[in-house]
Amino acid sequence: MTKLIDRRMGFFLIALFIAVVAIPVGNLAIEGKPVASYVVQLSGKYLCYALLAVALDLVWGYCGILSLGHGAFFALGGYAMGMHLMREIGTRGVYGDPVLPDFMVFLSYEQLPWFWLGFDQFWFAALMCMLVPGALAFVFGWFAFRSRVSGVYLSIITQAMTYALMLSFFRNEMGFGGNNGLTDFKDVLGFDLQSDATRAGLFIASAVALVAGLMIAKAIALSQLGKVLIGIRDAESRTRFLGYRVEGYKLFVFVVSAMMAGVAGALYTPQVGIINPGEFSPANSIEIVIWVALGGRGTLVGAAIGAIFVALAKTLLTGWIPEMWLFALGGLFVFVTLFMPRGVLGVIEESWAKLRRTEPVKEVTP
């Protein structure tokens, strides 16, 4: 355990623990609510983004797989949870149908599609949040990695996969709500989603999932498997020449990363109250790459910090000057690429190391 929690991880976990205690207490236990309900909701959403960034950093920072399809895994996890939340509505929907969601009644569905069966059970939905993204990653990775597709070509086809899924989910015939997606959720596990206590619980659950994701990713990075992954990242041909089945290692870490992204999406959906095909947008996957690059590729903690920072900046700038956000995001990516290749966390650690080296040596008087 001590190997998993190094100095940077320790500082981040301490800050996260303080936030997990302070934000719910400020919203629920202190009179006057110094922490507004929307702050709790936004904070939970940011932690989901942080987990998503950690998932991408695991494959990009440690294995060199620049995936532009992690937005798809995130969205699939979100849809799996959204399907459960829609089944939970029951007769409280607009049309009052005990089985069919409102959009299916509106579109004249006569019965529930087979792929919606089982989603009335939370355990089944929670399992699907991981298995569906993991299965897609396995099938995609099996063909891509065995064909030795890598580099920019792999990035392009992962982006094409995301775009194809987005177009598919926009169609009403798919049975996922079409353009409007899934929304109007009422509760989760019997708890009202509009309740402050439920929002605080989801925020804490997101923090726990983020810590678990960081620990899993760190354990992989420090293991013998992690050393092989770094070898693949730095010299794939040499690693293959040494006798390692590179395809198997890449496939494993790609599937694990996709499942982590699915969990992030599952926690994201009940907190924002909607999941629609826009989450598959290739622009979202590109933004995830910017989070990781800004925080520091191959640091895990830096990826989480970068996601929180960019998400917070997006919330503020789109409220003040919405037309400038995309220019600011593009400029930030260019700046980081040119002047901070190791990300913000790398710059901070380098500056701290230089400061310690330049400290004057104290003379010891006899």
TrEMBL record:
<feature type="transmembrane region" description="Helical">
    <location>
        <begin position="12"/>
        <end position="30"/>
    </location>
</feature>
<feature type="transmembrane region" description="Helical">
    <location>
        <begin position="325"/>
        <end position="348"/>
    </location>
</feature>
<dbReference type="InterPro" id="IPR043428">
    <property type="entry name" value="LivM-like"/>
</dbReference>
<feature type="transmembrane region" description="Helical">
    <location>
        <begin position="251"/>
        <end position="268"/>
    </location>
</feature>
<keyword id="KW-0472">Membrane</keyword>
<feature type="transmembrane region" description="Helical">
    <location>
        <begin position="288"/>
        <end position="313"/>
    </location>
</feature>
<feature type="transmembrane region" description="Helical">
    <location>
        <begin position="50"/>
        <end position="79"/>
    </location>
</feature>
<dbReference type="GO" id="GO:0015658">
    <property type="term" value="F:branched-chain amino acid transmembrane transporter activity"/>
</dbReference>
<dbReference type="InterPro" id="IPR017778">
    <property type="entry name" value="ABC_transptr_urea_perm_UrtC"/>
</dbReference>
<feature type="transmembrane region" description="Helical">
    <location>
        <begin position="202"/>
        <end position="230"/>
    </location>
</feature>
<dbReference type="GO" id="GO:0005886">
    <property type="term" value="C:plasma membrane"/>
</dbReference>
<dbReference type="Pfam" id="PF02653">
    <property type="entry name" value="BPD_transp_2"/>
</dbReference>
<feature type="transmembrane region" description="Helical">
    <location>
        <begin position="152"/>
        <end position="170"/>
    </location>
</feature>
<keyword id="KW-1133">Transmembrane helix</keyword>
<dbReference type="InterPro" id="IPR001851">
    <property type="entry name" value="ABC_transp_permease"/>
</dbReference>
<protein>
    <submittedName>
        <fullName>Urea transport system permease protein</fullName>
    </submittedName>
</protein>
<keyword id="KW-1003">Cell membrane</keyword>
<feature type="transmembrane region" description="Helical">
    <location>
        <begin position="122"/>
        <end position="145"/>
    </location>
</feature>
<keyword id="KW-0812">Transmembrane</keyword>
